[in-house]
Amino acid sequence: MNNKNKILNDFWDILNLAEDYISSGLIKNHSGFAVSSDSLEKISADISVCKQCRLGQTRNNTVPGSGNHNPMLMIIGEGPGAEEDKTGQPFVGRAGQYLDKWMEAIGLNRHDYIFLGNIVKCRPPKNRDPFEDEIALCLPYLERQIALLKPKLILSVGRISSQVLTHSNLGIGKLRGKSYEYQGIELITTYHPSAVLRILMSTESRYGKTLKE
Ligand code: URA
């Protein structure tokens, strides 16, 4: 099997794993990182005025995250891209639309079952990787969100968010396929939808063939 097909097969395996976790109704006790007066609205308001790091100078809109407030699944990406920076909503560009298809494939949608968020809440210029200090300053917002949302399962997409949430330097190929815990919640990791989309598009243009999409 060539490398691209292996990545796609691995990716479908992880979606099946997510489906298994969700349908088994697995809920872990949650230790809680939130202060009792905290709320999602307050977190979003705090993010909206945040200027703790350099990303606050270049963003157009903060992207705190959105979706169901009692989610089965919380999907965490790296950070907003151009479309997200324009609209203030997570995963609304091409990768996000493709992510919607993944979710539909396992019977979920972003409004009823999922909360979508990111490691950093402001767009890094030219979509560069967020720097370590930017991640460290932004992470408490995500931790507060997780503590309030208490998802049954966290799915981290892509290398950056997966390394941060698993406290590892390994690449996504090594991190994926195992289960971890973050704030007492089951965490699984997989490729970023933009990476899978890139592979699909290059395979299609080379072979004129549509793979599982
Ligand atoms: N990629 C991400 O990781 N997050 C978004 O919100 C959009 C694209």
Brief characterization of the structure:
By secondary structure, the protein is α/β, with parallel strands linked by helices. It has 9 helices and 6 strands, in the order αααββααβαβααββα. α1 crosses α9.
Could you characterize the architecture of this molecule?
The protein is an alpha/beta fold and 213 residues long. The chain is 46% helix and 13% strand. It contains nine helices and six strands, in the order H-H-H-E-E-H-H-E-H-E-H-H-E-E-H. The chain has helices at residues 3-23, 40-48, 55-58, 82-87, 94-105, 132-149, 159-166, 172-175, 193-207, and strands spanning 66-67, 73-77, 114-118, 153-157, 179-182, 185-190. A six-stranded mixed sheet has the order 1-3-2-4-6-5, sandwiched between helices. A hairpin with a 2-residue loop joins strand 5 (179-182) and strand 6 (185-190). The protein is globular, with a radius of gyration of 17 Å. The two termini are 19 Å apart. The model is unreliable at 26-32 (pLDDT under 50). Uracil is lined by residues 77-81, 84, 90-91, 93, 95-96, 118, 158.
